[in-house]
Structure formats: C-alpha cells, structure tokens
Write a sequence for this structure.
C-alpha cells in the first residue's frame, strides 16, 4: 500500500522520492523456483470454515453429554513444516540474494533508549526507619500507615518471618517490639 499526498497549489516544496531497487534476474528466477515448489491444486471444498466446524463440535459435545468438545482442526492455517520441507534451502538462498551481507532479517530490532543515553533509570529510594521510630509507631498504633514494602524491609532487617499480607507483617513486628 503506497500513499502519496496531493499538494495544494501554493505548496512548492520539492518532494524526495525514494529510489526503487529493481530485482535482478537471478532474484526473479529464485522466486519463480520458490513459487513452483509451493504450488498446489486449490479446491474450495478442502478448506472448511473453522468457526463453523468448532460450532458443530460444540453441538456434538452437547448432544452426547461430553465434558469438553473436541478441538476442530483449522485447515486455513498454512502448514509451515510442510512448506519448509518442500522448499529445502531455497528460502535461505533467496535471503542471501536479496539482503545485504551481515543483515539478519529474522533478528530482533534493538531497542533505543529514551533520552540521550547517559541517564540511568532511578530506582525508588527505600525509606529507612530507625528502631526508635519503629517503636514509636508500635506504641502509637500507627504502624499500619506504613506500606507493605517498608514493612517487609523491617522484617528482613530484624530477621522476622512474616507472611505476605499486611496484617501478618504488622502482627509479627508488633510482637517483636513488645518483647524487646
């Protein structure tokens, strides 16, 4: 799909068109070989509607009181393994003809970092509470105002075994500071 914007009469810019690289005869011949290998006789009755087939399977399961209907085979999906077997190494030869050396069409594109690249993502600063502040929270009953990550850090620092729930963490910390 190629879209070219039509310009207004007062728009006098020079438009740069990208140069089309025509395929050479060797590339065309290799693609003709690939197409010949992948040809097959098309018969419309060979390809059933997968949604309709699944509907029929569901009705069959309902009528026979089956727990789960069978999965309908989707015949419209290309058979990749069979295509690869038929092609052999023609696809690789075509890639070598079309792509420049060192280019990997199957490789992932590298992600670009935002910004100028010198900045590092800042980690959240952990709030460290002193033992006295923790004792004050326990005695005032305001320990519940602290967040779960802070409570987990307190449990880790004092080697307390608390659960994952906030109430369990509060109980363990309160019991520890009431004992000591």
């Amino acid at each position: 799909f190629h879209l070219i914007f039509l310009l207004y009469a007062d728009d006098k810019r020079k438009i740069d068109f990208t140069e089309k690289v025509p395929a050479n005869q060797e590339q065309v011949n290799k693609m003709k070989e690939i197409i010949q290998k992948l040809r097959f006789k098309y018969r419309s009755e060979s390809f059933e509607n997968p949604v309709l087939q699944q509907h029929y399977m569901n009705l069959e399961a309902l009528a026979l009181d089956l727990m789960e209907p069978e999965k309908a085979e989707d015949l419209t999906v290309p058979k990749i393994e069979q295509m690869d077997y038929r092609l052999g190494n023609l696809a690789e030869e075509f890639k070598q003809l079309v792509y420049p050396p060192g280019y990997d069409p199957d490789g992932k594109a590298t992600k670009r970092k935002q910004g100028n690249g010198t900045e590092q993502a800042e980690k959240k600063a952990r709030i460290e509470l002193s033992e006295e502040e923790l004792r004050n929270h326990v005695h005032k009953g305001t320990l519940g105002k602290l967040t779960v990550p802070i409570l987990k850090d307190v449990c880790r620092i004092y080697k307390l075994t608390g659960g994952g729930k906030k109430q369990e963490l509060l109980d363990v910390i309160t019991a520890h500071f009431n004992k000591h």
